[in-house]
Each structure stands twice: as structure tokens, then as C-alpha cells.
């Protein structure tokens, strides 16, 4: 359940064709538009979703600078991976992928997969485990 790095790079609005290239871009700070894009893909018109990653005041400053911090960039990159994994799991249904990421799951301690993914890399692993076990059932 690993997405193609070229797909990830495209959604992050960066030039990279490998995971190393993505890692380097994350370390340098992704463009703010990457946050806008994944927020729209997952939460559509709920622009407050982006504040789960970057506070409103900080986001204003990031927009002026044009780049996210490495920590914020890592969260955005994880969300992009989670979105692509969910999209693949739900056979390309954007609606199903979004709903899965946004709605709390009993198997994830009543937390939404998106919140877990934002919180840590372990949250992304938990999402993958839930999807893989659902596929086996």
C-alpha cells in the first residue's frame, strides 16, 4: 500500500521522482499550496481543516514566506500518502476516500484517520493496518 512517489510529488506540487527527492523537499519545506491542495482534496470547502496542521496565525506567515516548515511539510506529505492509499483502497472513489479519512473509526479509538495521520507516522501505519485488515475480511 505504498503510493507511487511521482503521484505524491505531483500532489505536493514539487519536482521529485523518488522518495529521496520527496524527503529532501520536505526537509526544505513544501510550498504552502501543497497544504491548500490536500486540505481541499480531503475536506473540500472546510478550509479550517488546514488549521489542524498549521495554526491560522502561523499559516498567514507561511503564506507570505511561501513555504511550510519541515514539521508541517511532513504532516502534509503523510496526508497526501494517506489520501492516495485510501483512494486506491476505494477503487478511485474520491468521496469514499474523503469520508473514510474524515470520519472517526471504532478501530482507531474513535478518532478520524486524518487526525491520526496528522499526529504521527504511526497514525499512517494504523490507517494502513485497518485498510489491510478490511481487505482481508
Task: Explain the overall architecture.
This protein is mainly alpha-helical. It has one domain. Helices cover 67% and strands 0% of the residues. Helix 3 packs parallel to helix 5.
Which structural traits does this protein have?
8 helices, 137 residues, Antitoxin Xre-like helix-turn-helix domain-containing protein, 0% strand, mainly alpha
Topology (SSEs and partners):
Blueprint: H1 5-12, H2 19-28, H3 32-43, H4 56-65, H5 70-89, H6 94-102, H7 113-119, H8 121-136
Helix pairs in contact: 1-5, 2-5, 3-5, 5-6, 5-7, 5-8, 7-8
The proportion of strand residues reads: under 5%
Strand tally:
0
Q: Please trace the helix and strand order, writing H or E for each element.
A: HHHHHHHH
Averaged pLDDT, please?
A: 96
- Annotation field: number of helices: 8
Residues in helix, %: 55-70%
Radius of gyration: 14 Å
Class by helix and strand content? mainly alpha
Give the N-to-C terminal Cα separation.
17 Å
- Spans of at least 5 consecutive residues with low confidence: none
Tell me the number of structural domains. 1
Could you provide a short overview of the structure?
The chain has eight helices and no strands. By secondary structure, the chain is mainly α. It has one domain.
Amino acid at each position: 500500500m505504498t503510493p507511487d512517489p511521482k503521484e505524491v510529488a505531483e500532489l505536493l506540487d514539487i519536482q521529485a521522482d523518488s522518495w529521496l527527492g520527496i524527503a529532501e523537499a520536505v526537509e526544505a519545506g513544501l510550498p504552502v499550496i501543497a497544504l491548500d491542495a490536500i486540505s481541499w482534496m480531503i475536506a473540500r470547502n472546510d478550509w479550517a481543516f488546514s488549521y489542524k496542521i498549521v495554526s491560522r496565525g502561523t499559516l498567514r506567515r507561511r503564506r507570505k514566506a511561501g513555504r511550510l516548515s519541515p514539521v508541517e511539510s511532513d504532516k502534509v506529505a503523510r496526508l497526501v500518502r494517506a489520501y492516495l492509499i485510501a483512494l486506491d483502497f476505494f477503487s478511485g472513489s474520491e468521496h469514499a476516500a474523503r469520508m473514510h479519512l474524515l470520519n472517526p473509526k471504532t478501530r482507531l479509538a474513535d478518532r478520524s484517520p486524518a487526525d491520526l495521520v496528522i499526529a504521527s507516522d504511526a497514525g499512517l501505519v494504523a490507517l494502513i493496518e485497518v485498510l489491510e485488515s478490511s481487505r482481508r475480511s
